[in-house]
Amino acid sequence: MEKKLITAIYPGSFDPITLGHLDILKRASTLFDKVIIAIAINSEKKPLFSKKTRLKMIKDVTSNIPNIEVDNFTGLLVDYAKNKNAEVIIRGIRALSDYEYEFNMALINRSLEESITTTFLVAHQNYTHLSSSLVREVAGLGGDVSNLVPKNVIEELKRKLDAND
Ligand code: ADP
Questions:
Q1: Are 9 and 36 in contact (CB under 8 A)?
Q2: Residue nearest to atom 15 of ligand 1 (CA)
Q3: How much is the pTM?
Q4: How far is the CA of 3 from the centre of ligand 1 (A)?
Q5: First-to-final CA distance of the chain
Q6: Any idea where the domains of the chain sit in the sequence?
Q7: pLDDT, tens digit, for every residue of 63-89?
Q8: Domain 7-163, CATH 1.10.1610.10 — does that match?
């Protein structure tokens, strides 16, 4: 019997991508045949980084992982997932507080589209405190974020902060 290939979507704002996101992504790439990391474009949120820069940062740090694709989407996640023939949504869980929100989202998404299954991957213990908003805040105040984000993100953060000077 031919093996069925499974595509998973890892959605998020990734404003910017952190080492916590990257850890989840690497783990997911060993579990699924293809992983699409998809930036959710939400017109109501004003991100620090443009869609283009976020895509570029993610492409740079994932270029050595062959089964990862980088994309963006607007609208309903389940519609996007269906369009991509994906059956799995991946979300990272850092703490119980994440779980409550994520549990509700998973239920809503399942009620919208029964065929798509949400999977939770547990954050690496080094990154359970880590969020993109923390990175933006610390970097904005001139703090060192080198243990929190990939190298190319540090460069983009510097460029952004210099431009705002
Ligand atoms: P969103 O706005 O959708 O929460 P994020 O970019 O903040 O987008 O997060 C995307 C996904 O990655 C979410 O499932 C989130 O819980 C997870 N995540 C965020 N930070 C980490 C981390 N440090 N470790 C593991 N997972 C994380």
A1: yes
A2: 92
A3: 0.95
A4: 30
A5: 61
A6: 7-163
A7: 999 999 999 999 999 999 999 999 999
A8: no
